[in-house]
Amino acid sequence: VKNASILVVDDESNIRLLLEEILTEEGYQVTTASNAAEARDARLSEEYDLILLDIWMPETDGISLLKEWAKKGSLEPVIMMSGHGTVDTAVEATRLGAVDYIEKPVSLVKLLRTVDKALFHTRTKKGQQGKLVPPSVTPVGKSKVMQALRDQVAQVAKHDSNVLLVGEPGSGREMVARYLASFSDRSTEPFVTIMAEALNNENGGLSFSGSTENPSAIDRAQGGILFINEIGKMPLHAQNSFSDILKQA
After folding, report:
1. Is 160 helix (H, G, I), strand (E, B) or coil?
2. Third-level CATH fold of 5-126
3. Which intervals hold domain Response regulatory (predicted)?
């Protein structure tokens, strides 16, 4: 959910600058505040989609500020941050209305996942139109290569055709497949995964042909997407069966 406005509240200038740089490069509109007073002024002058709030700050700490805002009602999603957090602190923040909690030093992947998750659920609750992609299936990264990958996948998803994803083991091919599925017209239909090398002589037939009592992978994926992991390792007999199925599709 890009172009969202985010308020970052932290008394450490290096943390503020780091978060501002990361989130701005990801396409978010970022405002920073170094203390509770600046945060109050920022909220009075502008509405935000999300707030990143540090817990340990001088004068007024993050928990006290969150409690103050919660009492006034109409609180935007708040993600708490702390380098000295405890379970009790996290529980208290959640009780007051915080949607999540991030420990310092902040992990780039953890930060982006948490921000995306909070914004996704907020926009979903508001019923906003448009294709909302669950953060769990969104490839993370701000490099030109990752941006190009996301754009290319979104374009491919517009076409109803077979797709071959090539990459080293562990490179995230299934995540990309699910990301593609989320943009396609089949986004609400089943996404079925099978391991190609598991299609041996004993169970290969069961995966491609089934019955009412024991539906095949093809049957379960009807109308949706069938993801065959490590397709290059598919046994020869299974390749022949699958080839026949593709010809009939």
Report:
1. coil
2. Rossmann fold (3.40.50)
3. 5-119
Per-residue pLDDT, 128: 45
d(CA 203, CA 39): 61
> Which residue in this structure is represented by tokens 């004068």?
59
Check if the beta carbon of residue 89 is closer than 8 Å to that of residue 107.
no
The arrangement of secondary structure in 145-248, i.e. its CATH architecture, is 3-Layer(aba) Sandwich (3.40)
pTM of the full predicted structure? Answer: 0.54
Per DSSP, 2 falls in state T
- Give 148-161 pLDDT, tens digit per residue: 888 888 888 878 88
pLDDT at 16 over 80: yes
> What does the pLDDT look like over 62-107, one tens digit per residue?
999 999 998 887 688 999 998 876 667 777 888 888 888 888 888 8
CATH 3.40.50.2300 residue ranges of the chain are 5-126
